[in-house]
């Protein structure tokens, strides 16, 4: 593989990682809308509460994306077990 092909592959991998991470964050945000924050927070619709929800969504989404991307890479490495 030449250098240009390697950089292109890294670029596509990076773009894929960005989209997976943003998708997981969006999914976490949607799922967090089901949590009843009015039982936890004094003012659940305040900007501070929304900021807290956004930070929780980013953390959960990032952790989920990390798991998905690691699993994706590990599954790709398994093919080397069966190549002789």
**How large, in whole angstroms, is the Cα Rg?**
19 Å
What's the overall geometry? elongated
Total domain count:
1
SSE pattern: HH
Reported for the largest beta sheet, the result is: none
DSSP helix fraction: over 70%
Q: Kindly report how far apart the N and C termini lie.
A: 20 Å
Helix tally? 2
- Write down how many β-strands occur, each being a DSSP E stretch of 2 or more residues: 0
Going by helix content, strand content and strand pairing, the class is mainly alpha
Low-pLDDT runs of 5+ residues are: none
* Average pLDDT rating: 90
Provide the β-strand percentage band.
under 5%
Description:
The protein is mainly α. The chain has one domain. It is 74% helix and 0% strand. Helix 1 crosses helix 2 (47-78).
């Amino acid at each position: 593989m030449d250098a240009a092909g390697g950089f292109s592959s890294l670029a596509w991998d990076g773009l894929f990682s960005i989209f997976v991470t943003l998708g997981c964050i969006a999914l976490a945000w949607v799922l967090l809308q089901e949590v009843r924050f009015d039982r936890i927070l004094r003012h659940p619709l305040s900007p501070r509460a929304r900021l807290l929800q956004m930070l929780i969504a980013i953390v959960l989404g990032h952790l989920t994306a990390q798991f998905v991307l690691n699993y994706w890479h590990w599954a790709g490495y398994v093919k080397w077990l069966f190549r002789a």
